[in-house]
Amino acid sequence: MPPIDTLTFDLDDTLWDNHQVMVKTETGHYAWLDEALTAWLSPPSETPRAGFTERFPLESFVARRQQLARAHPLRRGDFTWIRQRALTELLMEYGLGQDDASHWAARAMERFMALRHQVEPYAEVDALLTALAGRYRLASITNGNVDIARLPIAAHFRVSIAAGEMLAPKPDARPFLAALARLGSRPSRALHVGDSWREDVLPAQRLGMQVAWIDIHDKGAARLPPGVHRLRHVSELPALLARLD
Fold first, then answer.
1. Fold of 19-116
2. Where are the beta strands (DSSP E) in the chain?
């Protein structure tokens, strides 16, 4: 095998624990929208109307997003578009006009994105990426809607791919190929680091990349395909690279 000169990284649940971030973000921006709408629609002199989340609980919002993803398969990975479109539709069904519904959906998504970027990379990540960037070309490839430019770790990556926004979410091969092309590398000289078997391991392996699978839930089989290496945490990556070299 040629020596590895390129590393591509997934973000969510690879460089940080994303579960609690998403719980806080999902409930937080929806509650904010409900409170803001109540204040806007109910002057103190009037009896408050039924709240937005009373009419459309969070489960309704999730169902509407799923419906939109099925109806617009090319946009299924563009989570920001799907969320804002779903909110606009629900707000119009709640009784708002098109302009007001679009306004409040956009405001809610501003709140969503503010919460979405309150991520804390694992303690080892900054030093790890600093060291790796001195030897390898680094890229990030994410299906999520984190704008990595808003995070300090963005400085470590020469290339950042938002796969959903390019309408080719993983496991589509295109975000991997785009990252390698922009870095001037090729699959045989690259290793992808990610936590999802379906979205990270399989597509990267099919392209001929090696893969560091972050098996955080210890779900993997005892035997792995050639070129796939199981890690429990991204902090184990330098040891793997030393073995491969």
1. Four Helix Bundle (Hemerythrin (Met), subunit A) (1.20.120)
2. 6-9, 137-142, 159-162, 190-194, 210-214, 228-231
